[in-house]
Automatic annotation (TrEMBL):
The keyword Signal applies. It comes from the Eukaryota. This is Carboxylesterase type B domain-containing protein. The keyword Glycoprotein applies. It comes from Allacma fusca. Transmembrane segments: none annotated. Residues 51-218 form the Carboxylesterase type B domain. Keywords: Glycoprotein, Signal.
Length: 223
């Protein structure tokens, strides 16, 4: 399994600076591809034909077929979006360590991206003011990410899995897994920012993105 750690994510704090800069370099090299994947891939989706059994219940995903000219040659991917990996951290579970999810009855349709966790996105409402504190590249990056972060809920502990597929089937065999941990210093961000589809198809590996709690809801060490 490859841990794809973005600068500013919790794990990166504990890594040596050497690793940190290695990942930073990787990020810089790969970001344009990832973001292209997020914003310009035209994909057609329909329900996947097969359900997958997990110990919490069955999952039905969505088949992503790439149609943009730059990605047309890629094999399809089956995406399982918004799979709960913990009980909703609300009410008695707020500020508590995550608790295993309850089994769901029947088939869970894992076909829509989950809400992002509540967060404080940088204020970019005034371009002139924003450009005084960030580069133009950063500003346009934030502008592109913003739509992926507008749907927020405290009930946000979900992950998204992108699996290489062929025809109507998940491709047989074992795959390496790339786990993408989003960054931005516990303040904002979501696994939803990264469409793992193109990455999964191109690299022939499984891509997992996920949300974790942010700000006071995620980092409070005082009950
Ligand atoms: C926000 O997420 C919820 C839960 O997944 C979903 O029901 C709702 O349609 C989403 N709203 C928008 C505007 O995407
Ligand atoms: C943005 O901020 C600048 C500097 O304060 C101000 O002059 C300008 O009118 C603002 N623009 C908008 C669209 O509010």
């Amino acid at each position: 399994m490859v841990l794809w750690i973005f600068p500013g994510c919790p794990l990166s704090r504990t890594l040596s600076s050497l690793y940190y800069y290695f990942w930073l370099l990787l990020l810089v090299l790969s970001l344009p591809d990832l973001i292209t994947a997020t914003t310009t891939s035209q994909t057609s989706h329909h329900f996947s034909f097969h359900t997958v059994n997990t110990k919490y219940g069955d999952l039905q995903g969505v088949r992503l077929q790439f149609s943009s000219s730059s990605a047309k040659h890629l094999d399809p991917v089956t995406a399982y979006l918004g799979i709960p990996y913990a009980s909703p951290p609300v009410n008695a579970y707020r500020f508590m360590p995550p608790v295993a999810p309850s089994p769901w009855g029947g088939v869970h349709f894992a076909v829509n991206l989950p809400p992002a966790c509540p967060q404080r996105f940088p204020d970019i409402s005034n371009e002139t003011i924003a450009l005084q504190v960030m580069t133009s590249q950063r500003y346009h990056f934030l502008l592109r990410l913003k739509p992926h972060l507008t749907n927020q809920s405290e009930d946000c502990l979900y992950l998204n899995i992108y699996v290489p597929s062929t025809g109507e089937e998940i491709r047989p065999g074992k795959f390496a897994i790339v786990l993408v941990i989003h960054g931005e210093s516990w303040e904002w961000g979501s696994g939803n920012e990264f469409d793992g589809g193109i990455l999964a198809s191109l690299g022939n590996h499984i891509v997992v993105t996920f949300n974790y709690r942010l700000g006071i809801l995620g980092e409070s060490e005082v009950p």
